[in-house]
Amino acid sequence: MGVTIKDIAKRAGVSVTTVSRALNGYKDIRPETRDRILRIAEEMNYRPNAVARSLVMKQSRTIGLIISGLTRSRAGHDLTFNIICGVNDRATEAEYDLVLSTTDPSRQEQVPYMELCRRRQLDGVILMGVRTDDPYLKEVLEASVPCVLIDVPLVGEKCSHVTLDNERGARLAVQHLIAEGHRQIGMINGHAQAFVSLERLNGYRNALKEAGIEYRPERVFFGDFEESSGQEGVRHLLSRFPETTAVFCASDTMAIGAIRELKAMGKRVPEDVSVMGFDDIELASFVTPLLSTVHQPFYEFGTRAVDLLIRLLKGELGTADVVEPHLAIRESTAPRCP
Amino acid sequence: MGVTIKDIAKRAGVSVTTVSRALNGYKDIRPETRDRILRIAEEMNYRPNAVARSLVMKQSRTIGLIISGLTRSRAGHDLTFNIICGVNDRATEAEYDLVLSTTDPSRQEQVPYMELCRRRQLDGVILMGVRTDDPYLKEVLEASVPCVLIDVPLVGEKCSHVTLDNERGARLAVQHLIAEGHRQIGMINGHAQAFVSLERLNGYRNALKEAGIEYRPERVFFGDFEESSGQEGVRHLLSRFPETTAVFCASDTMAIGAIRELKAMGKRVPEDVSVMGFDDIELASFVTPLLSTVHQPFYEFGTRAVDLLIRLLKGELGTADVVEPHLAIRESTAPRCP
DNA sequence: CCTGGTTTCGGAAACGTTTTCGGCAGGATG
DNA sequence: CATCCTGCCGAAAACGTTTCCGAAACCAGG
């Protein structure tokens, strides 16, 4: 159907070798024949067949974006989408094709990481959404195809990652709470299978310690990043520590749930209790009160991930890219009422 | 690097033909040799090379998801993401790989539709975000690779589409407004380059006509689906028709902008003016007041698009899949105050 | 024993590229 | 004149599959 390199060769009266040379800009070809071939290719509307090329070159100029647990969580919408956009934009800039793939822990056992890569002959992959106990994690580190992880702080020879400085982000958040006069501060964390949860917990602890406030494990509730666990979290926290005047949530979604529950309990936000989120999703700028939170540049995560991957593809060693957090202070936090 | 069919053949002492036969479950092979080969393949951890297979079979078991104007619009986030999820889920179910690709009108001129398909040897594509004046639209209809359009009501021999019954959705929306007692109803439409805009306008007109209300073209403002054009829309509409008590917006995002502007003008929503949206994006359930709107099942659009494409791939003729709208009445609409 | 039909298998071409190797001119050098 | 580059080009192998065609081997019927 399509016009091939052979057709051009025939029409130009040369061999396929010469056509290939002309098309790929090699030097050992007479300029006139090169131009003639190029003109003919143009006329015949020739388009190279990437599949055939991949087969012989053993690389596909394709990167895989593998997302674990995509549809499961409602929390990740805005977040995931922006990363996808960043990856896509940067990948097409660099002339890489992008194949989208999703898994979950059970599928990860069924189909191993390397099979996924080999099947499509992926040059590299960007992996997000994996949990600490996911099978892919070990596979990735000892695999032969380069990989960059998002929000998983691991590096290997052929493995980089990009993530926020989560400890610092969390620390800034509760530092702000403390600066506003709060001392009875609870935390609603994500599940323990997420790396970021542990780091954010550390940030919370460190901020308290700096301020000379005692850390009490009972003050942190482990949810699952979803709205309902935010509600559950405040019920749990407030019943045990009614004197709480501020709560730090490890996701905006949970913060929204927390606010909803606080309102249902007759508390005012932020007058009675301040709540701080994490992520700065789009919703944070639309709910009432507007959510104070720590901003994560998700789109940039996507572009950076591609950059890291391209460096890996060039043979450079794996590296870490941790981006600076900054606060977005809005309406859901306020000075503690005396 | 990877183990190939040839390695298996050597180890099993048969030809590659026989191995291929065993692997693909053909019948002209002795059951014992088939089982033996299968066992060996298993042992050697063989994975077929999809690239080589694509080359010879001239089909890739890959579908392209081409999105025009992805990052440009903030309006489309939730919408686009859900469609992507639907497409992805259904595609992996059907064992198709998904390559993500984005364009915009200018890129569409540079790289023709068919080139995109041929390069990756796509079996078919799902196309969304195209406008009435986009180059791809003509190309798609006369192209040789099957295509399903989202929200573009065109069918061809190898071209299906899935869309909401937009006329009906809009009609239901303003019928509801009319039923609430409103008669001074403005409309904030999308841009004229979107098919849905025209259909929604028809719905608006038809609902008015049914109710015996005069249709006045000056009462409809053409925006661009974005929040700011919603604000602009109410300024325009309210300055010309201060007696307006309800406005129907062709997107939730514009509705949110409209509400914001109305509040800024000192009007209460819905007491002074009702506003109705379109799309039912996630945000609609979080803003205050909660947005009344017409629901679109975006995720389902994605899955249905894949189903349509698969039927096209089987050789069936192009067809239309128009899904029934239904209203989600919440807080932003209310009976007209007497 | 011959014929004809199955069953089971292998050789080889094909898909569209890239790349290695070598060949043939022509000019420069000895 | 012999030798050696250098510039330009073609033949052919290779990538990993699938598939067409034919060939053994076996069996049944005559």
Number of domains of chain A: 3
Spatial arrangement of strands, main beta sheet of chain A? 2-1-3-4-5-11
**CATH class bucket of the largest domain in chain A:** Alpha Beta
Q: What is the chains' assembly state?
A: homodimer
**How many DSSP H or I helices of chain A?**
13
Low-confidence stretches of chain A: none
Shape of chain A: elongated
Overall structural class of chain A, as computed from helix and strand content, comes to alpha/beta
Largest β-sheet summary of chain A:
6 strands, parallel
Strand content of chain A: 15-25%
CATH topology of the largest domain in chain A: Rossmann fold
Features:
338 residues; four-stranded parallel beta sheet; alpha/beta; DNA-binding; 44% helix; 13 helices; homodimer; 434 Repressor (Amino-terminal Domain); Rossmann fold; six-stranded parallel beta sheet
Description of the structure:
Two copies of one chain form a homodimer. Chain A is of the alpha/beta class. Chain A folds into three domains: 5-48, 434 Repressor (Amino-terminal Domain) (Orthogonal Bundle), CATH 1.10.260; 62-165 and 298-325, Response regulator (Rossmann fold, 3-Layer(aba) Sandwich); 166-296, Response regulator (Rossmann fold, 3-Layer(aba) Sandwich). Helices cover 44% and strands 16% of the residues of chain A. Chain A has 13 helices and twelve strands. The first copy, chain A, has helices at residues 5-12, 16-23, 31-43, 50-57, 77-93, 105-110, 113-120, 135-141, 166-179, 195-210, 227-240, 252-264, 298-313; strands spanning 62-68, 97-103, 124-128, 147-150, 159-164, 185-189, 220-222, 246-249, 274-276, 293-295, 320-323, 326-328. In chain A, strands 2-1-3-4-5-11 form a six-stranded parallel beta sheet. In chain A, strands 7-6-8-9 form a four-stranded parallel beta sheet, with helices on both faces. In chain A, helix 12 links the parallel strand 8 and strand 9. In chain A, helix 1 (5-12) packs across helix 2 (16-23), helix 5 (77-93) packs across helix 13 and helix 9 packs parallel to helix 10. The longest helix of chain A has 17 residues, at 77-93. The radius of gyration of chain A is 26 Å and the shape is elongated. The termini of chain A are far apart. Strand 2 of chain A pairs antiparallel with strand 2 of chain B. Chain A binds a DNA duplex (30 and 30 nucleotides) through residues 2, 4-6, 14-18, 20-21, 24, 27-30, 33, 48-58.
